[in-house]
Amino acid sequence: MHGRISQAATVMIMLALLITGCTSQASNIGMAKDKAGNVVDTGFTVSTVGSYDSADTAVVMSVDQQNNSVTLMNMDAGRQYTLYYDGTTYVTDKYNGPMTISQIRAGDVVDVNFLKGKRQIAGIQLSPKAWVYDNVENYDLGGINKTASIGSTTYSLPEDVVVLSEGRRTEVMDIVAQDKLSIRGIDHEIYSISVEKGHGYLRLKNDQALIGGWIEVGNTVIKEISEDMLLVVPEGSYQVFLSNNGASCTKDIIVERDKEVVLDVGDLEVPQDKTGRILLSVTPDTARVKIDNRTVDISNAIELPYGIHQIQLEAEGYDSLMKYIQVGSEYAKISFTLEEKKKNDDSSISGNSTQDKKPEEKDDSSVSENTLNTSSGNKVYIDSPKGVEVYVDSKYVGISPVSFKKIVGSHTVTLRKSGYKTKSYTIYLYNDGEDITYSFTDLEKEGSSVSGNKSSSDDSTRVEKEPDVETVSGNIIHPFDPDDGKDTDEPDEEPGASDGAGTPEEPDTSGGAGTPEEPDTSGGAGMPGISEEPEASDGL
After folding, report:
1. Which of 487, 476, 477, 448 is nearest to 539 (CA)?
2. Choosing a second label site near 534 at 20 to 30 A (CA), which of 261, 278, 314, 491?
3. 374-412 residues labelled b (16+ CB within 10 A) or e (exposed)
4. CA 151, CA 332: separation in Å to the nearest integer?
5. What are the pLDDT digits (tens) for 431-472?
6. Cα-based distances in Å from 192 to 160, 184, 423, 503
7. How many CB atoms lie within 10 A of CB 470?
């Protein structure tokens, strides 16, 4: 009996040693002998949950839940790579709270830890160093020296900034002023821009009675009606008001992204001319007043035709003001007050600068007309694509190749051709005393892709960045890669690594809607509910 107990104890001890790896063979895991009897390293390692050997701070390009993969862009090297996740992957928000992988969005800036050889994600977190602004409307992406502004704050804008629209990478110049954006970055640098709400187009038909009048699309667009105009309008539902010399009508439209709406106004009834008298009160009383680009005397009531009119006010020491007024009654009083100019009105990039307040809202009472302060004898040439209609700030300028006067500021160039997809670009013109030539890509039909926009100034050529359509297969960037000298598939250039050490200064979250976004954790707490293993590791 005693012998049997001893034998059983011996067996249990041996099993315990084997399970815990406390044998002479434990150190041989991952080792093998060749034909000559020499021990070689097979590269096999036993990994535990949460273990990793590489780390990176990157922008999420896409999340493929069908293949359990995440495609990332390393901003230092400008290269993208793909990693895989499974049920053991930790997914957390910037405060280390639990998330699911479905809550990670394209454009998010994340800190990712992974096993290099398996391309397996151990943990992915919304970077605590990153800030995000959603639904941004007040922005300027054409600052000098590669800068951009959000509200009144200036950031650097790298050439390889990630710009995403409807799931694909695009370019900064594809963004027009009517688009709503989500912008993300770290410190004073923008990492990604996502177009959350894009734009479509509005064309008028049978509008002869309205030429020279005004069109108002909701509170977003107010324009003087010109012949063959093509309006760029944010996607959405709107009530359109059109007027000219007492003739007016109201229509309802729905604008879809990248699609054109044709509005027939041929049923407009032209009544007898109606006028109203407007009494203006302006502070300061020394202000100069123009209505429809004509200087007026506001000491007495001004008689104006029914409809929309543009009013401009200027006074020394005060900010200029441009508004639109609608005359629809026989008599009305309107007051305006100009704001004094600020003595120190400038903003610049400073070390570790972050957005510390909500971006300023656009003034819905009027629509930005691209403040054009300077013009010269220089011209802008549109060389290609050839044979397309060209519109600048909604006004028709001709069939390409075509040229128009160079006026400093940002402008929306729209290209249109029957049977093709209408396309708009934002161009930024500077007072450099030079002509400039743009060569845009051919307009696309269904299923085609866009790349390769160019612009040139005199003899020098500035090539706009092509969309990054590179797919990575087999090779992977390992930013935090131990120098083992054995991975021959690695690229020559290693991007910078982030070891997660240190805590950057958090932006002031008192700004409300403009503060860094907190991810929705309604998808459930704990680890992501994913049970499937990734594809076989042959291609890893």
Report:
1. 476
2. 491
3. eeeebebbbbbbeebbbbbbbbbbeebbbbbebbbbbbb
4. 34
5. 888 999 999 999 988 655 444 454 444 333 333 333 333 333
6. 9, 5, 22, 21
7. 11
The CA–CA distances, whole Å, from 518 to 71, 94, 357, 425, 475 equal 22, 8, 16, 32, 34
234 prior amide bond cis, ω within 30: no
Q: How far apart, in whole angstroms, are the C-alpha atoms of residue 394 and residue 224? A: 10
Count the Cβ atoms, other than its own, within 10 Å of residue 453: 19
Encode burial over 141-164: b for 16+ CB neighbours within 10 A, e otherwise. Answer: bbeeeebbbbbebbbbbeeebbbb
Q: What are phi and psi of 255, to 5 degrees?
A: -105, 125
Q: Across the strands, what pairs with 181?
A: 136, 195
Q: Which pLDDT belongs to residue 460?
A: 33
> Could you identify the residue written with the tokens 């590791």?
537
Per-residue pLDDT averaged across 370-378, rounded? 56
Asked if residue 293 has pLDDT above 90, the reply is: no
**Residue 160 pLDDT more than 80?**
yes
Helix, strand, coil fractions of the chain, as percent rounded to 5: 5, 40, 50
- Spatial distance between the Cα atoms of 392 and 426, rounded to a whole number of angstroms: 10
Distances in Å between the alpha carbon of 395 and those of 232, 256, 381, 386, 492?
10, 21, 16, 18, 50
pLDDT of residue 216: 92
- Locate 116 and state its tokens: 């290099």
Q: Please say whether the dihedral angle defined by the alpha carbons of residues 340, 343, 346 and 351, taken in this order, is positive or negative.
A: negative
189-218 pLDDT, tens digit per residue, is: 999 999 999 999 999 999 888 888 889 998
- pLDDT for res 48: 63
CA nearest to 57, candidates 466, 504, 526: 504
DSSP state of 16: H
Euclidean distance between CA atoms 338 and 250, whole angstroms: 32
Closest of 48, 43, 89 to residue 65, by C-alpha? 89
Going by C-alpha positions, the residue among 334, 332, 337, 338 that lies closest to residue 324 is 334
Neighbours of 283 (CB within 10 A): 14
The pLDDT-based confidence of 148 (bands split at 50, 70, 90) is very high
**Predicted confidence band at 508 (pLDDT cuts at 50, 70, 90)?**
very low
| Other CB atoms within 10 A of residue 303 CB | 10
Give the CA-trace dihedral at 316, 317, 323, 325, to 10 degrees: -60
Hey, is 170 helix, strand or coil?
strand
Q: Of the spans 197-206, 310-319, 355-364, which averages the highest pLDDT?
A: 197-206
Q: How far is CA 274 from the centre of its chain?
A: 46
- In angstroms, the CA 186 to CA 507 distance is 10
Residue 13's H or E segment, with its range, is helix 2-20
pLDDT(165) > 70:
yes
Q: Provide the mean pLDDT of the chain.
A: 75
Q: Is the pLDDT of residue 507 over 50?
A: no
